[in-house]
Amino acid sequence: MLAVETALVELIIMIVLIDSIYGYKPLNLKDLKYLVALSDTGHFGKAAERTFVSQPTLSAQLKKLEEYLGVKLVERQPKNVQLTDVGKQIVVRARRMLDESEEIIALARSNTDPFAGKLKVGLIPTIGPYLLPRIMPKIRKAVPHLGLMLYEYQTEPLLKRLRDGEIDLGIMALPALQDGLETRTLYEEAFTVALPTHHPLAAKSTIKVADLKGQTLLLLEDGHCLRDQALEVCSRVDVREPEDFRATSLETLRQMVVAGLGITLLPEMAVESPYGSQRGLVIRQFANPTPSRTVGAVWRKSSTREAAIGAVCDVMASVMAKSNGTPRTAVAAKKSRELTRNT
């Protein structure tokens, strides 16, 4: 049955192409956008809102699309909108067509103005929330005609989407597998130790890796590169990892530390965020040599957006170089003392 449906979809696409060649009315990309929006939202009103049209307009255009293709795409039921099997298969191909059309526009614009159009940027969750507030105002000022479309993925999904052409640029912890990819180092970020207020190690001004021996170390779930980095930092000492706990975010880790369930390692920018100033939490720097991670940019070697990618990376590197030029260790130490006094 599936083979028959697939063949039907391929036949529809062939008919559309033949119609276009012989002068019949071409397929409207806007109608495909409406269909994809309906697939994503499962709601006519939300799909209309996403595509900036009225709900009656969207519904009418989808009916015209069904008439044009000669198949039913949507099952319309009260409070329940679903795509038919053929509709779902057409959405998969519609996404590709819409992505390709955007690539064509971006390619044309990049030839006239390489710093215009849209640039799709993916960031890993332990970097994005803390880096973006620092860099976005500077990027908008440096390349005002370049629109950044921002996405958040864990490392492996990010690299897959990058290789598949779904995003143009990835910001992640290096190194990365470089099969067909270019990389550029942007900055180094130190790790810090997050402790409950009354933890014995909170009495120390700085902490050695050896001090973590025997401690309960709270970590992110599998798939986050920060988990592997934290384990690597602590690989030389015997730490305990709870078998019944894996955090989905740094904020969850922070709350679990405040609750006294253990300690964790946090990237320095996560400490400097507004969430870093929290009652019941003490942040301590590592003694030299300070464990750190390398944050960098990754993009396809075949990318046509290298000029725009280079401009964005230049801004990021410049902002972080200035930030790293300040006595950040002293700032973090001051924050730790303030947190201790407020608890």
Describe the structure.
With 343 residues, the chain is α/β, with parallel strands linked by helices. It has two domains: 2-109, Arc Repressor Mutant, subunit A, CATH 1.10.10; 117-343, D-Maltodextrin-Binding Protein, domain 2 (3-Layer(aba) Sandwich). Helix content is 48%, strand content 19%. Strands 3, 4, 5, 6, 7, 8, 9 and 10 form an eight-stranded mixed β-sheet that branches. A hairpin with a 2-residue loop joins strand 1 and strand 2 (80-83). The protein is globular. The N and C termini lie far apart (65 Å). Residues 326-343 have low confidence and may be disordered.
CATH architecture of the largest domain: 3-Layer(aba) Sandwich
Secondary-structure-based class equals: alpha/beta
Mean pLDDT: 83
Q: Supply the number of structural domains.
A: 2
Order of helices and strands: HHHHEEHEHEHEEEHHEHEEHH
How many DSSP-defined strands?
A: 10
Largest sheet, in brief, is: 8 strands, mixed
Task: Describe the global form.
Answer: globular
- At the fold tier of CATH, the topology name of the largest domain is D-Maltodextrin-Binding Protein, domain 2
Rg value = 25 Å
Question: Span from first to last CA?
Answer: 65 Å
Q: Helical amount among residues, as a percent range?
A: 40-55%
CATH top level label of the largest domain: Alpha Beta
Number of helices: 12
List low-confidence stretches.
326-343
**Strand coverage percent:** 15-25%
